[in-house]
Amino acid sequence: MKLLVIGAGGREHALAWRLAQSARVQKIYVAPGNGGTADRYPLENLPLQDTDALIAFAQQEKIALTVVGPEAPLAAGIVDAFRAAGLHIFGPTRAAAQLESSKDYAKSFMQRHDIPTAASRTFTDADQARAYVQAHGAPIVIKADGLAAGKGVVVALTLDEALQAIDHMLGPDGKFGAAGARVVVEDYLEGEEASFIVMCDGQHVLPLATSQDHKRLLDGDAGPNTGGMGAYSPAPIISPALHNRIMREVIQPAVHGMARDGIPYTGFLYAGLMIGEGPDATRPLKVLEFNCRLGDPETQPIMLRMKSDFLETLEHAVNGTLDQAEIVWDRRAAVGVVLAAAGYPDAPRKGDVITALAPDTETCITFHAGSAIQDGKRITNGGRVLCVTALGDSIRRAQQAAYDAVNLTLFEGRQYRRDIGWRALTDHPRHD
Ligand code: AMP
Ligand code: GLY
């Protein structure tokens, strides 16, 4: 059987790597792929980005199933186009992908369906937004309404920062262009973040293992926001009681709400949660955002822990029988450490030679993202270059194994956090 994975990141490498373990898989094309998916049988890169060209290829090569990684092609309607051409594809339609592509749509959806989230107002006029922020005070959160590659959110700790963000997004020299034409101004929430990702077939829901990301560039959660500097699974903060609450208060209302709105949700659904202090039965639980896809780098540790045949799960997902699917997880923990290029996130440098990679083993894999092969050499080719991901009997052991492998991974200017997993090492018992 031939499969197609759309995307070029570490998430897509991890997806393709896991699918490659399935006995029925003959070939996996990754479009456009990266330096880790190029030359490792049965993976092969496909230098196509255009939807029509991808559809023609899938028809010609009799691709049995396509899985989409990033949000941009989903928001552009790749799922609708593949389905119209009679092809099997797993992901949300363009209408459903608005849960991520429009913050304003997501906020009004959550309000309509009683899904807990921070109170907010949407503005198109800079003066009105400024007046609201001035009356409200800081801290406050300003979000561009539209896909901004994870860079459209400003958590303003002072009034000045908030006003500056509004000027950037709505003012005449608007930094975000069309994406910044509307802003959502939202109450600031305190707590611990966790990623809760499920698979949906329009009706049924199958949760994946829980995970936590590290959004800031520097140790101790300092520095600018990034796409994510490392992740681990499971997230110890999500106890069985909290898991039930998330399913009941967030996921079920979201999936049923989409169906009731006439936009049945198919695909991965990612709830970014803020969990406040308190006993599990009553602690505040709010949705920061929905993503219409898997997380990156959360997918890397999640895929390393997945033991069952992922192709089978995906087949249930496209056939509408996810209620009959089960995923078996490795009881061990996994930690993934991202190595980013010099200059990331503002101006990542490309073209540094990756002079050493840790050897892949049964318990430690280097997933590639911004890497490419040029003249037989692996070079850096983007912001987040690699995600070194390892299993261990505890988060601490997994962390040690991941950093042992990071020490063997060399390229000029590499940046990485030394503390991936720190929250899980402190105050939580393990629940999985
Ligand atoms: P988002 O893209 O909406 O997830 O926002 C990116 C990051 O900004 C989140 O992962 C949080 O760290 C932070 N953030 C977003 N919304 C809020 C909020 N209402 N309160 C505090 N932090 C937030
Ligand atoms: N790691 C956060 C995201 O994928 O949105």
Strand order of the largest sheet: 3-2-1-4-5
Architecture per CATH nomenclature, i.e. the level-2 architecture of the largest domain: 2-Layer Sandwich
Q: Which segments are poorly predicted (pLDDT under 50) over 5 or more consecutive residues?
A: none
Beta-strand share of residues:
25-35%
CA-based shape: globular
Number of structurally distinct domains: 4
What is the CATH third-level topology name of the largest domain?
Answer: D-amino Acid Aminotransferase, Chain A, domain 1
Distance between the termini: 34 Å
- Mean pLDDT equals 94
Please explain how this structure is put together.
There is one protein chain. The two termini are 34 Å apart. The mean pLDDT is 94. This protein is 28% helix and 27% strand. The strands form 7 sheets. Strands 3-2-1-4-5 form a 5-stranded parallel beta sheet. A 5-stranded antiparallel beta sheet has the order 12-15-18-23-20. Strands 6-9-7-8 form a 4-stranded antiparallel beta sheet, with helices on both faces. It is α+β, with helices and mostly antiparallel strands and 432 residues long. The radius of gyration is 21 Å and the shape is globular. A hairpin with a 2-residue loop joins β21 (371-374) and β22. The chain has 4 domains: 2-92, Rossmann fold (3-Layer(aba) Sandwich), CATH 3.40.50.20; 125-181, ATP-grasp fold, A domain (Dna Ligase, domain 1, 2-Layer Sandwich); 192-324, 2-Layer Sandwich (D-amino Acid Aminotransferase, Chain A, domain 1), CATH 3.30.470.20; 333-425, Phosphoribosylglycinamide synthetase, C-terminal domain (Glycinamide Ribonucleotide Synthetase, Chain A, domain 4, Alpha-Beta Complex). It contains 13 helices and 24 strands. Bound molecules: adenosine monophosphate (AMP) and glycine. Glycine binds at residues 213, 228, 291, 295-296, 298.
